[in-house]
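User: Predict the structure for this protein chain, please.
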Amino acid sequence: MTLTATTRLAGVVGHPIAHSLSPVLHNAWIEAAGLDGAYLALSVLPGRFAAFVDGFRGSSLAGLNVTLPFKTDALAAADQASERALSAGAANLLVFRQDGTVAADNTDGEGLLYAFARQAPGFRPDRGPAVLFGAGGAARGAAATFLAAGCPEVRIVNRTRTRAEALSKALGGPIRIFDLPDAAAALDGAAALINASSAGLGEAAAPPPDMTAAPDHAVVMDMTYRPLRTAFLLAGAARGLATVDGLDMLIGQATPAFEAFFGQKPPADCDVRGRVLRILGEAE
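Assistant: Here is the predicted structure, written as structure tokens:
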């Protein structure tokens, strides 16, 4: 990769950021498309995000993807925000405009539905309730996405009830809260079971829930992609349910970001999933 004065730059910002696979995706697309561009991983210390964004206003930087712990900070730092960013209460995409303003968007929901479409093509969000394990920013974004897609009810299962109540209050709509010991009741009639907690249901060592009560048509999804086959997904597969991993969600949310940064869709014939699987040492 050769950087010049005309190279179009974009990147991903977070803390920590060394684990991010976003540069692998975007730089593979850049290379396949023959673009004069580059995509970088940038680390920012907590408390410095707003100053970091302000430093790039009016610059040649095309934009940034935003990951933990700055998604709510990204929304606050923007001059304008899309409806889906406002609904999610967070932004994972900032676009820097030539007039010095910054626009925020949230493509996580688009990535979520893309992953379901790729790995569970018969899935319909309106078929039944979606059960979300976790009540953080990822759960809020997923809940907003499913409600907008026609899901009749979102059920939040979380260790800390006050956090789940805050999520419900922020979103409104048909949301029910279940304590973790009552997870079996939450699975009744569910169309989707989604682990939206990066900490493994609140604790790194927490076991996956008992999925016996889930209907046979339910689809199990984990937003995590390291490891690709999580304990949550393995429990769903053991129950005989269709599963969806988090890697396609990563790819799905990156696709509109690439178009926002570089003005064109990613090349369709570029197998970024295969490239990432090789890096992870995984096989399909």
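The CA atoms of residues 132 and 197 lie 9 Å apart.
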